[in-house]
């Protein structure tokens, strides 16, 4: 799974979840490496294990041909308190690393396969993620 090698601060502030003011992604919104990509149409925080599950589906659906680029990286730590623990006593322990994704962000790119294989592989990978997505082509 993806996670940072080293972080300056172990726990971050939570940040705002209201993205109606933020709008759509300006960085990473166009295809840069491959011919086909998976573009987010809603916003979410994607955990590292969800990215890994989608990557496995992509590589299995494409076979030995083709190349995959992952355009997001989970570097934001999320904390969580254990179940049935009373409030107070500080912030919870580190739970997972997430990648905040805004609408319009390209998540995966693939190249080296036919259009039909690429669209089916990206559609399957999109079902593993907690967002709505669409397949885009160059």
Primary descriptors:
138 residues, alpha+beta, Aldehyde Oxidoreductase, domain 3, 4-stranded antiparallel beta sheet, 3-stranded antiparallel beta sheet, 28% strand, elongated
Write up this protein:
With about 140 residues, this protein is an alpha+beta fold. A 4-stranded antiparallel sheet has the order 3-6-1-7, with helices on one face. Helix 1 runs antiparallel to helix 2.
What's the quick description here?
With 138 residues, the protein is α+β, with helices and mostly antiparallel strands. The protein has two helices and seven strands. The chain has a domain at 44-82 and 90-137: Alpha-Beta Complex (Aldehyde Oxidoreductase, domain 3).
By oligomeric state, this entry counts as single chain
Strand order of the largest sheet: 3-6-1-7
Share of residues in helices: 10-25%
Please state the average pLDDT score: 93
Please summarize the sheet with the most strands.
Answer: 4 strands, antiparallel
Helix-strand pattern, N to C? Answer: EEHEEEEHE
Q: Give the distance, in angstroms, between the N- and C-terminal Cα atoms.
A: 29 Å
* Sheet/helix structural class: alpha+beta
Write the layout of secondary structure elements.
Elements: E1 36-40, E2 44-47, H1 48-62, E3 67-70, E4 76-80, E5 93-101, E6 106-111, H2 115-127, E7 133-137
Antiparallel strand pairs: 1-6, 1-7, 2-5, 3-6, 4-5
Helix pairs in contact: 1-2
């Amino acid at each position: 799974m993806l996670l940072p090698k080293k972080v300056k601060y172990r726990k971050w502030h939570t940040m705002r979840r209201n993205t109606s003011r933020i709008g759509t992604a300006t960085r990473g919104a166009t295809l840069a490496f491959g011919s086909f990509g998976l573009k987010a149409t809603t916003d979410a925080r994607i955990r590292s294990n969800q990215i890994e599950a989608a990557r496995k589906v992509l590589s299995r659906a494409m076979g030995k041909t083709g190349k995959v680029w992952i355009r997001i990286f989970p570097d934001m730590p999320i904390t969580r308190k254990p179940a049935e623990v009373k409030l107070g006593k500080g912030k919870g322990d580190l739970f997972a690393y997430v990648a905040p994704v805004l609408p319009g962000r390209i998540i995966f790119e693939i190249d080296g396969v036919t259009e039909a294989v690429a669209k089916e592989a990206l559609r399957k990978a999109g079902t593993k993620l907690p967002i709505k997505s669409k397949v885009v082509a160059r």
